[in-house]
Specification:
The protein has 185 residues and is α/β, with parallel strands linked by helices. The strands form 2 sheets. The chain has a 4-stranded mixed sheet. A two-stranded parallel sheet has the order 1-2. The chain is globular. The model has no long low-confidence stretch (mean pLDDT 92). Strand 1, helix 1 and strand 2 form a beta-alpha-beta unit. The protein contains 9 helices and 6 strands.
């Protein structure tokens, strides 16, 4: 069973673009603003009452929410015993600094990243979640032999920087962003 909760206009867009496609699972789309705490709690309670083993995937959600909203979401997820796992976007502190330094905020002014905790894993620990597994985009891309779809110039610059960097810096570069599978602490 796959429940997809998103803004009403996003669900409408998906449904119009996927018209005629047949899902490979039982799919339910729910029009919901996850930042609306009351509506979110009602939705989570209803889902938790129907299921015993839930994985919540918030891909491309948490970066756009303020820290207090992510904390509230995490508390709501944690308060439902049926919710066993939570997958959230991960960005390193270095990625936040790069985004500010490169002025990416201007390019993303219509959808700015708001979630920039000083201590990512400490933030989630405070709201009752511990990492079970971390998957970094660069490392997974190498493992799967799927390079990132960056323009050639960016790939070349990254390769040269990697060759010139220390082993520690190369490790940091590979752990720039990814996903974290959390479980209740």
């Amino acid at each position: 069973r796959w429940l997809e909760a998103d803004y009403p206009h996003v669900i409408e867009l998906k449904e119009s673009r996927l018209l005629g496609e047949t899902p490979r699972c039982r799919l339910e789309r729910v029009r919901l603003d996850l930042a609306d705490a009351d509506a979110r709690r009602i939705f989570l309670a209803a889902v938790a009452a129907q299921s015993k083993n839930i994985l919540v995937l918030t891909e491309a959600v948490t970066p756009y929410l303020p820290e207090d909203t992510v904390a509230s979401l995490g508390a709501d997820l944690r308060s439902n015993e049926s919710i066993r796992y939570w997958v959230a976007d991960y960005f390193s502190a270095a990625s936040y600094r790069y985004r500010r330094r490169s002025d990416m905020g201007r390019a993303m002014k219509n959808a700015p990243f708001l979630f920039e905790p000083k201590d990512y894993f400490g933030f989630f620990a405070q709201i009752g979640w511990k990492p079970k597994e971390v998957r970094y985009f660069a490392i997974e891309g190498e493992r799967l032999r799927r390079p990132p779809p960056f323009p050639l110039t960016i790939r070349l610059v990254t390769r040269v920087l990697g060759l010139l960097a220390s082993a520690e810096r190369r490790r940091e570069m590979k752990q720039y962003a990814g996903f974290v599978l959390f479980e209740p602490a």
